[in-house]
Prior knowledge:
This protein is mainly alpha-helical. 70% of the residues lie in helices and 3% in strands. The longest helix is centred in the last third of the chain and has 63 residues, at 58-120. Residues 1-23, 106-128 are annotated as: Disordered.
Amino acid sequence: MDNQGQQGQGTYNQQGQQMQQGNNVQLSYQQFQEQVQRQQEQERIQAQQALRNVGLDGASQQVNQVVIELQNIGRELQLAENQLQMQMDAQKRQIQNIHQRLQQAEQMVQRSLSSMNASSQPSTAPFQ
């Protein structure tokens, strides 16, 4: 299956978000997964019908069903990998933000200490 939906369903990017021309309609991951499962079920039914139409025996049908199931599992795995990658990227950004806040806090402490040291230093000007 490619990332093209059937007519009227739009196209999908790697994260499973529906993209339509001019509109940024986005499906949730769960909605996208349900839509993919419905499409896979339709494909399975069509494949079974095609097998019946050409008169393949039961064993051949079983082999074909296994092949279709393996393809479905591969697609599901790819979707799960995409979702995991998105989560990892989000966590990486979160860690970078925390690291940046930590560096800013350290700089504030250093400036405060420098300021305190400067104000507590005795003046070198002679007393008159």
